[in-house]
Design brief:
de novo design (two linked rop proteins), Protein LemA, 6 helices, 188 residues, 77% helix, membrane, mainly alpha, coiled coil
């Protein structure tokens, strides 16, 4: 092998060796950004729901003034969701708010005039659409986290991830209490 050929092979080898870490790093950055975007999309949909809830609650309050505990539960859950610091806290607060909303919608069944109120119907439809958007945003987030965490653990990306501090991301999970149907008691 002549000298120019050896030099060319060495240069190609160096480029390949440098290309793998750079490609892995850039891929991890892209996947991490996708996780961040997906998380932000969940926040956007949760905020949309939080913005709809006061209108829905005020509409129901006009008909169901004696259901104060449900209104208080909804307000408390909204506050917890607004103050959630991480994915687990958001999931727990989100589940608590969903449970309170479920109880509110069960209460509505006792007020036939309320169910026929156009404002309530419109808000209910918007809330249902938002709940669907939240479910899709959660799925998209978990897919992004799964792709990121898988890439982060595979060789040679695991070396790059540890060198540059790419941390594992947390999946959006329902809290333990979300598996139970919320109790509704009309005797109070």
């Amino acid at each position: 092998m002549n000298k120019p050929m050896k030099i060319a092979l060495i240069i190609v080898g160096i480029l390949i060796i440098l290309g793998i870490p750079i490609g892995s790093y850039n891929n991890l950055v892209s996947l991490e950004q996708n996780v961040n975007t997906s998380s932000s999309n969940i926040d956007t949909q949760l905020q949309r729901r939080s913005d709809l809830i006061p209108n829905l609650v005020n509409t129901v309050k006009g008909y169901a003034t004696q259901e104060k505990t449900i209104f208080t539960d909804i307000a408390n859950a909204r506050s917890k969701l607004a103050g959630a610091a991480n994915v687990s806290d958001k999931a727990n607060a989100d589940n608590e708010l969903s449970g309170a909303l479920s109880r509110l919608l069960v209460v509505v069944e006792n007020y036939p005039d309320l169910k026929s109120n156009q404002n309530f119907k419109d808000l209910s439809i918007q809330l249902e659409g938002t709940e669907n958007r939240i479910a899709i945003a959660r799925q998209d987030y978990n897919t992004a986290v799964n792709n990121y965490n898988t890439k982060r653990r595979r060789f040679p990306s695991n070396i790059i991830a540890s060198l540059f501090g790419f941390q594992e991301k947390t999946l959006y999970k329902a809290s333990e209490g979300a598996k139970e149907v919320p109790p509704v008691d009309f005797t109070k």
